Amino acid sequence: MSGLVDQIRSGLADSLKKALSSAGEKGTLPEVETPAFVVEVPREKENGDFASNLAMLLAKPARTAPRRAAEALVAELDLSGLPVEKVEIAGPGFINFYLSSNWVLAALPGIVKKGEAYGRVNIGGGKKVQVEFVSANPTGLLHMGNARGAALGDSISSLLDYAGFEVSREFYINDAGNQIEHFGRSLEARYLQLLGRQAQVPEEGYHGEDIMETMRGFVEKYGDRYLDTASPARREIMVKYALAEKLGAIKKSLGEFGVNYDVWFSEQSLHDSGKVTEAIERLKESGYLYEYEDALWFKAREFGVEKDEVVVRSNGIPTYFAADIAYHMNKFQRGFQWVINIWGADHHGHVPRMKGAVKALGYDPDALQVIIMQLVRLYKSGEIVRMSKRTGQFVTLEELMEEVGRDAARYFFVMRSADSHLDFDLDLAKAQSNDNPVYYVQYAHARICSIMKQLEEQGGTMPDPEKAGLSLLREEAELALARRLADLPDEVASCARDLAPHRLARYVHEIAGLFHSFYNAHRVITGDAALTGARLVLVAATRVVLANCLNILGVSAPERM
RNA sequence: GUCCCAGUAGCUCAGCUGGAUAGAGCAACGGACUUCUAAUCCGUAGGUCGGGGGUUCGAAUCCCUCCUGGGACGCCA
């Protein structure tokens, strides 16, 4: 981290550490190891700008009352070089630090100067991380669950990028296996029906209208050319045609949603390239596979999973799990040091055995992190809408963007933590779209742009932030806003560490709120040139923070609304 | 039955590795536009943090137990 706030925090922590050891040398405290204490920002500002719990943690090892330990520490504190005005011992033994009221203004010039780069931190150290998300079956359109995964995965990726990781976004295309078989049979049935023949979409097949639509296009292009072609070959042709079309549509939708992938990875390619065989061989050699009733099983129980898992069926066809093992082997072979998967809650049972397989292959299971995203429940007219690809009833990403807009949809999905169930009331999102918090944040950005435009029209110019008289910013609303602007690097670091973009959404909402309050209480452009200059720096910094956060969340930052 | 997620204001949800007096949005009520955008602001009201036990200086947060809702437990993916 590199922000002003972090500099001060670590400065205080260092001072406390030194105070502890000199107190130990002088004998005012027993010599003990430094506990894992924190310097944090108290919730109540009456408790100072920063506070530490060190004294309370010393109570037990040093066998002293927390407040006495605090007194001994404070007596040894050397705070030179830090803008601390007052230190107090409070409550059960907190050491509270009060800073000079305008200490935070020092952060503003850097924010304006860094611009798009402000908020970038280097906790990742260029570590290669892959984020795999959505990975929807390419047999249909994207639904609400996929949309949530897309918004979440993309924001997490951006967050990690900002935090100094080398991020690769990946989409795993499930273009192999049983479902493709069902898909082919469904396509074939529709084809025959369209040409007036008797045919039935199989029970387990795809009944959606979009499949019919696809085959209409196929018939237009090829007519009855395949009417008499032998079935397996015919299905292969149709599957190839339909997959290309479906995948193209998925790519297009995601692109419009602001989600762009680095890699589209085909499951079928794992079979074709022999990766699946390679993975199975590796597991076999290390003794994690056994044969039972003609099938090949993975010893999942050795990894704390309840049941062993089939990797090759008795009919000789590998399972999806086998392909997934090969896929993860391949991910690590490609050099990713951190592999993040975003899965729907309905796949959570798959996590322990996947981690087990990673371990069995000889990789660190902790390098694989699976984010389980709770499912989206869709409400329309007060009723739950069942979503299912098989029956073809679902609201697509396309429809969602049409109804509530891309920005609102993305913000909405990313506002909530991944492990909270999401009730999406379409009517509400549509009818009250103006109340959507995303507009609140965007409006703040637009307002600042409007001020800048006004400035330009009046022939004014932006001052050099380094030279502006920032100490003129004395109003509570100004200082409160500046204080939070200085937090962005910290927020990015902590949100990235916890893979929690929803906290960034709350942060930027708070920034917008602080700005709106300031805006309503004070004018930026006034007859006082010096004050105007200082406030221009403040709002310019605010615009940077708003834009950077919105960018991470995949939401646009409009100049006017 | 076993496992995962959730239970916090009327509603939807935050609460980051345990910190001081539990927060925000919406809804409700009362105010503020001759001004750089009122998609805004200011104020009021709203809580046995699902129940009960435990751990400790300190618990919405950790442990145990029970209740409620959702999901997963296939030679499907």
TrEMBL record:
What keywords were assigned to this record? Answer: Aminoacyl-tRNA synthetase, ATP-binding, Cytoplasm, Ligase, Nucleotide-binding, Protein biosynthesis
Coiled-coil annotated residue ranges, if any = none
Quickly give the catalysed reaction.
tRNA(Arg) + L-arginine + ATP = L-arginyl-tRNA(Arg) + AMP + diphosphate
GO molecular-function term, one example from the UniProt record: ATP binding
This one is known as Arginine--tRNA ligase
User: Where found, per UniProt?
Assistant: Cytoplasm
| Keyword Nucleotide-binding applies | yes
Tell me what gene encodes this.
argS
Family of this protein = Belongs to the class-I aminoacyl-tRNA synthetase family.
Q: Which InterPro entries match?
A: aa-tRNA-synth_I_CS (IPR001412), Arg-tRNA-ligase (IPR001278), Arg-tRNA-synth_N (IPR005148), Arg-tRNA-synth_N_sf (IPR036695), ArgRS_core (IPR035684), DALR_anticod-bd (IPR008909), Rossmann-like_a/b/a_fold (IPR014729), tRNAsynth_Ia_anticodon-bd (IPR009080)
- Supply the EC number(s): 6.1.1.19
Q: Where is this motif: 'HIGH' region?
A: 136-146
**Stored PANTHER family:** ARGININE--TRNA LIGASE, CYTOPLASMIC (PTHR11956:SF5), ARGINYL-TRNA SYNTHETASE (PTHR11956)
Oligomer and partners: Monomer.
A biological process (GO) of this protein is:
arginyl-tRNA aminoacylation
Domain (DALR anticodon binding) spans 441-561
- The organism's superkingdom is given as Bacteria
Q: Pfam families from the xrefs?
A: Arg_tRNA_synt_N (PF03485), DALR_1 (PF05746), tRNA-synt_1d (PF00750)
Q: Name one GO cellular component term.
A: cytoplasm
Q: Where does this chain mainly localize?
A: cytoplasm
Residue ranges occupied by any Arginyl tRNA synthetase N-terminal domain in the UniProt entry? 6-99
